[in-house]
């Protein structure tokens, strides 16, 4: 069994994935017109003159969601190997995982009570 | 493909791998072309319209014409945009979409790779597309794009968690992350497929997957009525086409993944139907999954952004964790 062959194909797929946009956009350059004007290159704002800066301030809530994502993604990293090995392991690992998940659920309930999950609390 | 994987790597084998990968790339592009046509036809029929019928017989060349139009359309990059990130964003979104397809097995012998971390590879790579979407929203330097990009990122990371946890039950039953082993763990009868024993995981998976695809009823990033088009407002021509392409390639990936994980892959639904080749069953189940996504789009209205977030965290995440422990306790009591 040549296991490394699998990763050769993965590399081929990633290379093809990069190659397609590069080729398509390069070929497209010779086909499409290019007549830039000042108006064409202005920022789109439903036909009005753009007002203020484009990079507006956004809701702080997005940051909180990102934090929660990191916490639960770490949980997933722990859950996957645990799930693969579960058939060979005993009741002990089940209890262990229950404790781990319960600790994280406390975090989720805390965020819930702090109204992090409610969109218009701030 | 299975037999070649066993041999040592020579230049001939490398050329065979490359040739098949290129063939597969064109199959995927063909799928995307006709998925768009099929979607417009199906939604047209469901809404009592005809759908595209002008270009070619039955409108079959409609999407081909659309692609040609996008190819010869002028490519405008706004003056205020961050030029390099603007160019890079569609590529970053598209590359993982195509790269995840490498792990999917179509039949017992027709597959590209049999990675022993297949499912983890899928989850890890599909996350990278979110970065492309944020970059697209940020680099456009446009209010609509930025809001759309931020919304999209928040939605994708919120539903990524239930999506990856809902398949943990399947991993526990199969004892492997390799997608081929997972299919072989299911049998030639529909009650042996994972969707019945893992019904909670299956429902959570479907909902989270539709949300990951940014499709109706979760198409908030592109909410036309409030954000014009979301993160790709400023994109035109073929750069826009790559965002669309990534979306439909992900549809291919999710439909195949649902088939493989929950609907028995290439297995027949009833034992006496095994004389029909596995690839036919795979295509049938795959087509049904794709049709289901179009059906949802024609049926459901879009939900509100606050409902979307609270649904993901308050309902889907606890349910997916519950599914893990129900599976664990069931296996402890009845299988060991």
What's the number of extended β-strand segments of chain B? 0
Oligomer: heterodimer
In round numbers, the mean pLDDT of chain B is 87
Low-pLDDT parts of chain B are: none
User: What class, by secondary structure content of chain B?
Assistant: mainly alpha
Put simply, the count of helices of chain B is 13
The biggest beta sheet of chain B reads:
none
Proportion of beta-strand residues of chain A = under 5%
Distance separating the two termini of chain B = 36 Å
The averaged pLDDT of chain A comes out at 84
What features would you describe in this structure?
The complex is a heterodimer of chains A (122) and B (336). Chain A has a domain at 60-113. The mean pLDDT of chain A is 84. Chain A has helices spanning 4-31, 61-85, 91-113. In chain A, 62% of the residues lie in helices and 0% in strands. Chain A is built from three helices and no strands. Chain A has 122 residues and is mostly helical. Chain B is mainly α. Chain B has 13 helices and no strands. Chain B is globular, with a radius of gyration of 21 Å. The model of chain B has no long low-confidence stretch (mean pLDDT 87). Classes of the chains: A mainly alpha (122), B mainly alpha (336). Chains A and B meet through helix 1, helix 2 and helix 3 of A and helix 1, helix 2, helix 4, helix 5 and helix 6 of B.
Question: Topology, pairings included?
Answer:
The complex is a heterodimer of chains A (122) and B (336).
Chain A: H1 4-31, H2 61-85, H3 91-113
Helix pairs in contact in A: 2-3
Chain B: H1 2-6, H2 11-46, H3 62-71, H4 83-99, H5 118-139, H6 143-166, H7 168-174, H8 179-184, H9 199-212, H10 224-227, H11 237-261, H12 278-299, H13 305-335
Summarize the model shown.
The complex is a heterodimer of chains A (122) and B (336). By secondary structure, chain A is mainly α. Helices cover 62% and strands 0% of the residues of chain A.
């Amino acid at each position: 069994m040549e296991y490394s062959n699998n990763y050769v194909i993965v590399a081929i797929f990633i290379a093809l994935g990069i190659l397609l946009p590069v080729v398509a956009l390069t070929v497209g350059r010779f086909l499409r017109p290019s007549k830039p004007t000042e108006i064409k290159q202005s920022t789109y704002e439903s036909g009005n003159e753009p007002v203020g800066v484009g990079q507006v301030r956004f809701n702080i809530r997005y940051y909180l969601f990102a934090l929660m994502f990191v916490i639960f993604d770490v949980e997933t990293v722990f859950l996957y190997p645990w799930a693969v090995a579960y058939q060979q392991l005993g009741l002990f690992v089940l209890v262990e995982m229950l404790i781990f998940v319960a600790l994280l659920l406390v975090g989720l309930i805390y965020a819930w009570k702090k109204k992090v999950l409610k969109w218009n609390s701030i | 493909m299975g037999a070649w994987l066993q041999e040592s790597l020579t230049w001939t084998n490398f050329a065979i791998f490359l040739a098949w990968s290129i063939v597969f790339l064109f199959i995927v592009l063909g799928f995307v072309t006709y998925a768009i046509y099929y979607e417009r036809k199906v939604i047209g029929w469901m809404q009592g319209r005809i759908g595209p019928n002008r270009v070619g017989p039955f409108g079959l060349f409609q999407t081909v014409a659309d692609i040609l139009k996008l190819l010869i359309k002028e490519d405008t990059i706004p003056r205020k945009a961050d030029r390099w990130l603007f160019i890079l964003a569609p590529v970053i979104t598209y590359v993982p979409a195509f790269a995840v397809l490498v792990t999917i097995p179509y039949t017992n012998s027709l597959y590209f790779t049999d990675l022993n971390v297949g499912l983890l590879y899928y989850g890890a790579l599909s996350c990278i597309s979110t970065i492309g979407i944020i970059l697209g929203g940020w680099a456009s330097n446009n209010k609509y794009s930025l809001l759309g990009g931020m919304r999209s990122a928040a939605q994708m990371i919120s539903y990524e968690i239930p999506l990856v946890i809902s398949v943990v039950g399947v991993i526990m039953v199969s004892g492997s992350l390799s997608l081929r082993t997972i299919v072989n763990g299911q049998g030639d009868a529909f009650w042996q497929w994972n969707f019945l024993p893992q019904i909670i995981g299956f429902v959570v998976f479907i909902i989270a997957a539709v949300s990951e695809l940014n499709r109706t009823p979760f198409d908030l990033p592109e909410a036309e009525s409030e954000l014009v088009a979301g993160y790709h407002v400023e994109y035109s021509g073929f750069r826009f086409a790559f965002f669309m392409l990534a979306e439909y390639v992900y549809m291919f990936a999710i439909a195949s993944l649902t088939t493989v994980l929950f609907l028995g892959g290439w297995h027949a639904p009833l034992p006496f139907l095994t004389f029909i080749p596995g690839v036919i069953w795979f295509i049938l189940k795959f087509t049904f999954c794709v049709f289901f996504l179009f059906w949802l789009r024609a049926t459901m209205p879009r939900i509100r952004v606050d409902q979307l977030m609270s649904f993901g965290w308050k309902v889907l995440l606890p349910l997916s964790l519950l599914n893990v422990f129900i599976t664990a306790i069931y296996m402890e009591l009845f299988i060991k």
